[in-house]
């Protein structure tokens, strides 16, 4: 598992022997914590961890629930700007995972064990072992993706909450404000490249723009009268997708690809792929049409 921004993993710098650390801390964990050590509330989603409490609060706890460690320096920029985001997501998780905060200045042995060179440094512990880490402040969408991947690796069923950015984009398109919808979908893709839903939404905006004010019957009739007119066939395919006849649209363009060459063929291919994006990759009709497209091209 890697994080969404492909930041450096702890595994590229040697394994972390948590077992050795646990053994070394067993006696310390059994001693009462100093009076200035923050208490560890039972069942809390956000806890402060020290060298003395690391075994119980992180290693043992991770046997039943994923633990994400936030190594920080009190009052530093990451502590003030990034750590609150982790706290927010941990609080929202309703116990699906626990955030363990470790001040590297007061717990230097933990920092040494994890070979921490800079902060923020975030590591996920599952089943008593580190499974992934990153060492840079991530935007909230990427952080959510990383946490979801950690939970899935731990066998936790992840319920995807509704994305308010997507809801706003969909609302704009439903209201016919294509400019606002396009801007919203592009913003999502800037923040979360490859988001399939946003790509589909953006493709739908393009489809609606191309078919705005088009006479459906007239477009289909023009395509029937001129089977080799590329522009007419593309518009007819758009109309068919818009009216729920996507299978027919795909077949139309695959057949046109078989009859064209050069730039015309590439234009048709790109248009067909854009229509696939409208439906999304999981649509059975898209899978079937992709096979037909591959056959027509090769």
UniProtKB/TrEMBL annotation:
Residue intervals of the Thioredoxin domain: 27-152
Cited InterPro entries: Thioredoxin-like_sf (IPR036249), Thioredoxin_domain (IPR013766), TPR-like_helical_dom_sf (IPR011990)
UniProt source species: Dactylosporangium vinaceum
Family the UniProt entry places it in: Belongs to the thioredoxin family.
Keywords in alphabetical order: Redox-active center
Protein name: Tetratricopeptide repeat protein
Keyword Lyase: no
């Amino acid at each position: 598992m890697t994080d969404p921004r492909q930041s450096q993993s702890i595994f590229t710098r040697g394994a972390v022997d948590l077992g050795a650390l646990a053994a070394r801390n067993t006696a310390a964990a059994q001693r009462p914590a100093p009076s200035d050590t923050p208490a560890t509330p039972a069942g809390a989603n956000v806890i402060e961890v020290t060298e003395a409490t690391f075994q119980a609060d992180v290693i043992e706890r991770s046997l039943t629930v994923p633990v994400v460690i936030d190594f920080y320096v009190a009052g530093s920029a990451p502590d003030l700007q990034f750590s609150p985001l982790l706290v927010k997501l941990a609080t929202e998780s309703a116990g699906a995972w626990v955030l363990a905060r470790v001040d590297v200045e007061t717990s230097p042995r933990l920092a040494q064990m994890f070979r921490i060179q800079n902060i923020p440094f975030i590591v996920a512990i599952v089943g008593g072992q580190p499974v992934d880490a990153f060492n840079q402040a991530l935007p909230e969408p990427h952080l959510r993706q990383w946490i979801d991947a950690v939970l899935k690796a731990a066998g936790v069923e992840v319920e995807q909450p509704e994305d308010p950015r997507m809801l706003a984009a969909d609302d704009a398109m439903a209201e016919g404000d294509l400019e606002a919808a396009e801007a919203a979908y592009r913003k999502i893709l800037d923040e979360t490249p490859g988001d399939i839903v946003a790509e589909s939404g953006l493709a739908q905006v393009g489809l609606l723009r191309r078919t705005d004010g088009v006479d459906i019957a007239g477009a289909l009739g023009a395509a029937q009268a001129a089977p080799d007119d590329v522009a007419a066939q593309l518009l007819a395919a758009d109309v068919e997708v818009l009216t729920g006849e996507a299978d027919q649209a795909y077949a139309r363009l695959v057949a046109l690809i078989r009859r064209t060459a050069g730039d015309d063929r590439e234009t048709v291919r790109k248009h067909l792929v854009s229509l696939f994006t409208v439906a999304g990759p999981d649509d059975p009709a898209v899978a079937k049409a992709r096979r037909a497209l591959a056959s027509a091209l090769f």
